[in-house]
Amino acid sequence: MFDAKTLAIIIFIISYVGIIFTRLPWVNIDRPSAAFFGAVAMIVSGIVSFNEAMLAIDFHTISLLIGMMIIITVLSADGAFNFLMEKIIKFVPDNKKFLWFVIFFTGISSAFMVNDAVVLMVTPLIIAICQSSSINPVPYLIAEIFSTNAGSVMTITGNPQNMLIGMKSNISYLSFMLYLLPISLISMILIYYFITLFYKEEFKENKVIVKNFNSTYRLKTLRLAFFIFGIVLFGFFTGHLIKIPISLIALSGASIMLLFGHSKPRRVIDKVDWILILFFCSLFILIKGLEKTGTFTTILENIKLSKSISGVYLIHLISLIGSQIISNVPLTMFMVPILHNAPDALWLSLASSSTLGGNATIIGAIANIIVLESAKRLGINITFLEFLKIGLPFTIISLLVSLIIFQLYLIFGIL
Questions:
Q1: Residue 186 contacts by C-beta under 8 Å, 6 or more apart in sequence?
Q2: What 3-state class would DSSP assign to 27?
Q3: Per the confidence metrics, is the pTM higher than 0.85?
Q4: Of 42, 93, 265, 343, which one has the greatest count of Cβ atoms within 10 A?
Q5: Boundaries of every domain in the chain
C-alpha cells in the first residue's frame, strides 16, 4: 500500500503527534509511550529489523545517562544537596542575594550533575526557604528553571541532549565546556536582571532570609561519595587524553558508589529514570527508520547547513521553534542524523540553542515540567501564560547572546 519511505514518515508523524499532544481522545498516551509505539511499529512493519533496532541504540549515550543517574541518586540519598545548601546559604542574608544563590547554585550543579536530577532535589529546598522567609517562591522557581537550563549548556553531562551531542560529535569534555562556558555564564547573569525586572514588587526592598529547612545528611558516606564524584569529573576532563570514553568513566564511578554507598543498591537502581531510558532507546529506533529509508538524505538536499553564521542562525531558529513543539530532547534526536559529519561549530550550536530554547515555555524542557509539577504538589501553581511572559523574551535574548558568541568564534577562527 505504501512504500517503506512513506510508511516510515507516517509512523514518525503519528509518534511525534503523540509526543506533542500528550492528551489524545480514546488513547492512554504520553511521550515515552508514543516514542515506544513508533519504535515497535518501525520493527513490526519491517522498516527496521530487530537487529538493526538494537544497533541503532547509542549505548554510549544510554550508559552515560544511567551512570550519571546512579551517581546523582547516591549523592542525593546521602544528602549532598542538603549539605551544600546548608553550607552556602549561611552567606545569603536577603532575598536579592538568595536569587543570585538560586541561579548559580542550580546552574553550576546542573552543569555537572544532570539538570533533571538537580531540580528534583533542589525545588523542595527552595520552596521551604521561601515559605520560612515569607517570600513569594514563584520568581525563585522560574529562576531555578532558567538557570538549570542555562547552566546545563556548559557541559556534556549537563542534560540528556548534551550527552547525545557529546557522544555523537566526539568533542572532548573540556573543549565542549570551554566553548559554551561564556554563553552559560552570561545567560545566568541575565536571569537575575530579568527576574528582578518582571517581579519588581518582590525585590523592591530587601527581605531577610530565614534558613529554616530540613538539612539531614550522612557526612561519613558523603565524604566518600564526593571523593568518587571528584574522580569521575577528573576522568571526564582527561578521558579524551587517556582514550577512555566518558560513558565508561560514569559507569565505573556509579558501580563504585553502589558498592561503597550507604543506600542499598536495589533502592538506588529503582530510582534511575528508566522511563527516560526507554524514551531515548525508542527515539533512537524511530529515527533509524527515517534514516534507513533515506528521509534525512532528502532533508539534507533541501537544508544546507555549513560552518558559517547562516548555518548557526538556522540551527538556533530551528531550536527556538522545535523545542516548543516537541521539547528539546526529541528535537536533538531528530537533528543528530542531519548533522552527521558536521563541524564542531554546528554541534555546539545545537547544544546551546536546543537547551536555551527550552526556556521559552513550560513544555520546552523536561526540567521545566519537573520543577512545576514538584511546586504544584506543594500548593504553588505557575500558569503557562505567566511562564511564557518572561520565558519567551528571556529565551530570545539568551539565544541572541549565543549567536553573537558563535559569530565571534567564527570571525576570529576559534571554531
A1: 401, 405
A2: strand
A3: yes
A4: 42
A5: 4-411
